[in-house]
Here is the input.
Amino acid sequence: MTLTETSAIEREVRIEAQPETIFPFFTDPDLFARWGGVATLDPRPGGIFRMDVDGKNIARGEFVTVEPPHRVIFTWGWEAEDTLVPPGSSTVEVTFTPDGNHTIVRLVHRDLPSKESADSHAHGWEHYLERLQIVGTGGDPGPDPWATQAMAE
Amino acid sequence: MLKRAGLVYERREGTRRIYRARPDGLAELRGFLDEFWADGLDRLKVVAEQAEKGRSR
Here is the structure.
């Protein structure tokens, strides 16, 4: 995947608090719940990041970098089958930069699918739906060219 | 049935139940995450500033 195929969301907020005060709101489940929702957090590289986004959909990933109180990076994706954004596929980086008695909290959610990768995801499903349709109408779709390709690689 | 299949999600607002598809289309996902992180950081500002005041008291 090349850089042109993904996109990012960037947000910044200026908070009247020290980085040391704000950082635990990303690593302590009780504090996280006060702004981001119910979460399971194991804040060390490879540790789980799992949050209830809206009462139904769960986002899951892993902590990648935990540098209190400067920076935290975790991966993010939907904990569901058939999603454009599976766990581990996108990355959230949060940085905490002191600014007087304030802190600039900057959140960048990157590696999100772009138009091209979304199209290619849809293309993948079309391929199998077409084959399923042939089987469904009593036909034989023949060997899957994609499977043969994958075997040869 | 759609709910059981995980294709939609349910949110309760009072006595109303709101069903919505998992935001997974490209534009839909971007819009959802834009709003989700913006609202989240706004709430973070409020609770973190409260915590800071509690600390310095």
